[in-house]
Amino acid sequence: MTLPVLTRQEGIRTAIEVSIERRPAPDAGSLSERDAVWPQRLRRIARAALTYWGRPDLIDNAELLLTELVTNALRHGHGRTIGLRMYLSGGRFRIEVQDASPDRPELRYACPTDESGRGLFLVDALAEAWGVSDDGTTTWCTLPLTEGPSDMEPAAVTAPVLREALLHLPTNPSAVAAARISGRTRLTMLDWPGNVHAAIDVLGCLVDNAVKYGLTPGKTGQKLSARLGVTETHELVIDVTDPNPNFPNFTDATDGTLGRGLWKARELGSQLSWFVAPDFEGKTVRAVIKPGEADR
């Protein structure tokens, strides 16, 4: 593997370029064990890049699109290497996968009983647009950089996220205690060099806010989750996602005019923001905490 490379071109914000060596399986159309690990590794790179670029709202769709394009290239490519390029340009996020195969991939509709064949169908459904280069060797797709209803950007993350942990939480008041217990364990595993006691308090505040204002009492099928991430510069990113896409009084909530939950999180040293999470059909409230002296 060639490590991710940051490049700059006219009209393009910082791009990620990765080159990996294929290890094809003996059976055509199958994935070898060595090749099968690449989609997950590249998803981590995409998540880190989009978080760094301040576009976490694109992560879920980008990961799905990337998985399908890379898997297709690994299965059917002819060259020894697969090239991946991701970048923001012209109001769009673009993914390009180069596999050296002149055979143009074609969209087909799989039958309900088929176990495969839905890759490009999924790309066609999720992407704003997709296509193939004239020589057939590169498949690309785009996602629009749409603006959410929030009037603020997600709290700045100054470096890529290196390690992260996801917490699936119950959709009732017990979520706060569950988050605090699981969060402490996850922070220990993530080895974050900061004030863990304060971080757990911040996590509890965000989850409590989500339970009180993000859930609809009595409604079934709701989801509540938290994600903890540690960046390359040792910042801690806490994202709590709930089903309610609106937060009209965010400023009042953080300055203490409306309740003390998020105000307390801010007083504990976190930088707060919120943004729409379209694939979750809800929103994410984010806290970014700088590293400090460990207090475990």
Automatic annotation (TrEMBL):
The keyword Lipoprotein does not apply. Keywords: ATP-binding, Kinase, Nucleotide-binding, Serine/threonine-protein kinase, Transferase. InterPro entries: Anti-sigma-factor_SerPK, HATPase_C_sf, HATPase_dom. One of its GO terms (molecular function) is ATP binding. Residues 42-140 form the Histidine kinase/HSP90-like ATPase domain. It comes from the Bacteria. This is ATP-binding protein. It comes from Streptomyces glaucus.
